[in-house]
Every structure is written in C-alpha cells, then in structure tokens.
Amino acid sequence: MRDPLTYGGHLRAVLGLGLPLIGGNLAQFAITLTDAVMLGWYDVEALAGEVLGGMVIFVLFLFGSGLALAVMPLVAEAEAAEDATRVRRVTRMGLWASVGFAVACFPVFVFARPLLLLLGQAPGVAELAAQYMQIAGFAIVFSLLGMVLKSYLSALERTAIVLWGTVAAAVINAVANYVLIFGNWGAPELGIRGAAMASFVAQMVMFLALLVYVLVRANQHALFVRLWRPDWAALALVARLGLPIGLTILAETSLFAASSVMMGWLGAAALAAHGIALQLSSATFMIHLGLSSAATVRAGRAVGRRDGTDLRRGARVVTAVSMAVALLAVVVFLAVPGWLVGLFLDPSDPQRGEVLAVGVVLMAAAALFQLVDAAQVIALGLLRGVQDTKVPMLMAVVAYWVIGVPVSYGLGFPAGLGGVGVWLGLAIGLAVAAGLLMWRFWARAMQAAVPAP
C-alpha cells in the first residue's frame, strides 16, 4: 500500500478535484439564478411564481439525484479496487433508476396548479408557478441522467467536462432567457414560460454534452453496450445506497421548500425577498456541494484502498476549506446585503422598496447559518464516501422536520417574527444536523482503519 498523502497533498487533491466540480455547480446554479434575476427585472409576480415552481422542481430533482449520487462512491471504490465490471454495472443501473424516478415525477408537473392551491398559495402565483413547472419540470429526465454521468466522471476524477458542459448550458440559458422572457430579437414575449423553455433547453444541452464526452473520450467501461439488459443485483445496490441519500437530501431541501410555502403566506413581496436571499445562500452552498462531492470521491477511494489515515486526513482538509469559504460568505452577506438583493430587482419596480427592506433583514439571518450549512453538507459527503447513508438519513429527518420546520413556523407566526423567524428556524435545523452528522462520521472514522459500509 502506498504511503498516506500529507495534508498538503490532500489539499492539492481536494482542490484539483473540487474546483471543477464547484465551477460546474455554480454554472448549474447560474441557470436558476439567471431565471430569477431576469424574471425579477420582468415582474415581481413572475419572480414569485418561479421561486415557488422552481423550488418544487428542485426538491424532486434533488430527491432523485440520490440515486445518481450513489453511483459516485460505488464507482470510486470499485475503481480504486480495479474492478471495472462493477463500475459498469452500477453506472448502468444508476441510469435505469434515474429514468424511472423522472417518469414518476411527471404527474406532479401536469397537475401543478391544483396541487399548489391545496398548499394555500395565492391563485395568481399558483398559476404562474404551474406554467413554469409544466415546461421546465419535464427536463428532470435530462437533469437526472446528467447527474449519473457526472457522478461516474467525478469518481474517475475527470471533472473538466462537468465544468465546461455546465458552463455552456448556463450561457445558452441566459441567451434564451433574454430572448424569450422579454421578447427580444423578434421573439414573442413569453415571460415566465420563456424562462421555463430556456431552462429545458439548457438541461438537455448539458446532458448531451456529457453523453458525447463519455461516448468519445471516456467509454473505457463500455457503459452503453447492452444497456437494455437489467442487472437486478446492481440496481438493488444503487437503490439501497441511493434512496437514503435521496431522502436525506429531500429532508433538507423540503425544509427550504416548506419555508417558501410559509413565506408565500406573507405575500408576494415577502416570497420574492425570500427567493432572492435563498438564491444568494444557494450560491455559496454550491461551493460546499462541490467540496462535498470531492470528499465523497476521496473517501470512497480510501475505502477501496482500506486506508484509514488518508480517510481522516482528507476529511480534515476538506472540512477546513469549506469552513474558510463559509466565513468569507458571512462577511459578504453582512457587509453588502442591500447591494446583493438589489441586483435582482428592477429599479423602477413599485415593489422594489418593500422587497429590498425584507431581503436585507433575511440576508442577516442567512449569514447565521453559513457555517452550519457548510458543516452538514461536508459531513454528508464524507458519510456517502464510506457508504453510510441510513443512519444519516434518520438524523437529517429529525434535524430538519422534527426540529427545523416546527421552529420555523413557531418563530415566524405564533411568535410574530415573520420572515426572520422562519429563517432562524432554518438555521437551528441546520445546526442540529451539522452536529449530529459530524459526530457520526468522526465517531466511526476514529474507531477503525476504515468504517465498515
């Protein structure tokens, strides 16, 4: 067995793997961010509709992405153990599972308007959100298949294409938004439907770019030969690891979705301000998510080599990098909140002042949970790397839904704190999750050479 890497070696490895993943995540996020910014310039009601509809799509996508994310540690471990057959089997069945989940989501998009009305949303906002979901939602099949290919390539530490494919999709989305939302260059003015069309095309382009790359440059495992043949054992393995990952992600993202629903009860301006603050917080989260994926791959490879020293050193390094990024975000959020929120709003919009006033206060609340949000996502990445997903899922459910959602509601409404109370509840839920998940990983990592799957 090779000598363990030094801390400097781990830092170089984490950054070499993580920076393209961070760039890819930020470019992916830029697709949603561009929709929000341009719709904010177009109309605050349209922005509120996109916030609501986009959140539902995002929750479903992240739940389904658990199946794709399961491919990453499985491929990383198999590649470190030089088991090419296992690499091919789990990746193929990751594609199968993702298509099945995407198709199961289609009824949510078809019946979006009545479902949103049942959640107590205003009819106007529900109608706009439904228009967005009934177009952009069906791109989930491309998004999830793309996630499987990203996981496969990331586990092989071939992440440059993940970055550049996503950047190309983000550029296409921005141009299409400019044309279709506002009716520029002779196109019809489609508003929120134009944003949905642009997002659909962007997701399709990103998947096709990854597919072509795998077929031409990274097909050493012959992933698509006899793809039609089922492999029930590999499918069960992906599902057994991936469903708890998906449920863990669902527990967190549905916490934020529940906060969007609660903010909708406070009116369109409050929901728009919430959406802006959430978009800005999500931008920093994309950095931590890239580092979390790097942590998964590095931990998975340590498991494949049975190298506990590398596992622990790598975990310390990736956690330290993530904490440094979180501290920088805290400084920025507290220093220039008004300027950040104002980027999303048309200076001539009559609701700008109201949205800006609420948004500035929410940015201070968002700064509170930067460190704990970073800690919980890094811990989850490390735990996925060692294929520990069931207990973390239960911890996440307790932290986010037994604690986070009730506290958000209690502080926001019975306590009368409004939007600030909702966001303080988010911070408390994330803090509990961070503590439990970090304890789980380090308790196992320090007790054995490599934690048992």
Low-confidence segments: none
**Dominant shape:** globular
Give the total of domains.
Answer: 1
Helical content stands at over 70%
Give your account of this protein's structure.
There is one protein chain. By secondary structure, this protein is mostly helical. The protein has one domain (about 5-445). The protein contains 16 helices and no strands. The radius of gyration is 21 Å and the shape is globular. The two termini are about 20 Å apart. The model has no long low-confidence stretch (mean pLDDT about 85). It holds the Pfam family MatE. This is Multidrug-efflux transporter. It is a multi-pass membrane protein. One of its GO terms (molecular function) is xenobiotic transmembrane transporter activity.
